[in-house]
Amino acid sequence: MSPLKQASASIPDAFLCPITSDIMIAPMMTRSGLCFDRTAILEWLVHHGNTCPLTRAPLNASNLVPNHALQFRIEMWCEEHNVEWNGSSHQVEDGDSVIVTCLTSTVEERRKMKQRKQQKTSSVVPVQSRISRHRSLLCKVLSRVR
After folding, report:
1. Ordered DSSP codes for 1-65
2. pLDDT of residue 14
C-alpha cells in the first residue's frame, strides 16, 4: 500500500483540493478564502468560465493568490507522515500572475467572440486575431514556466 493511501484516512480536509480531492501541490486562495490546487482551478476556469466551482459565484483568475502558508503546512505534514509530495518543485512564482492574466483574457475573448457570432456581426475577425495573440503569448509564457 502506498504511503499516501496509508495516510489518507488522516489527511486534513484543508489539504485536499475540492476539485480533484487530491493533496494540493500549489494552493491558490480566492478572495472569500476558498483554496484550490493551482492547476485544477485554472483548468476549471478555462473550461467552465469565470465561476467558483463550489459557490458558482463569479471568480476571475486574476483574483487568485498563492496560499504559501497552506503550502508550508502541507509540506510539513507530508514530511511528518512520510508521504511523498511534489509540492516543493511546484512553488507558485510571480510568473503565474502572467499566466492567470493570459488565461483570463483568453476566456473573456472567447466569450465575446461567441456573443458576437450569435449576433452575426462582422466583428468576429478582429476578435479572433486578438485570441490568437493571447493564445500565442500564453504558449510562450507556459513554455518558460515549464
Report:
1. --HHHHHGGG--GGGB-TTT-SB-SSEEE-TTS-EEEHHHHHHHHHHH-SB-TTT--B--GGG-E
2. 94
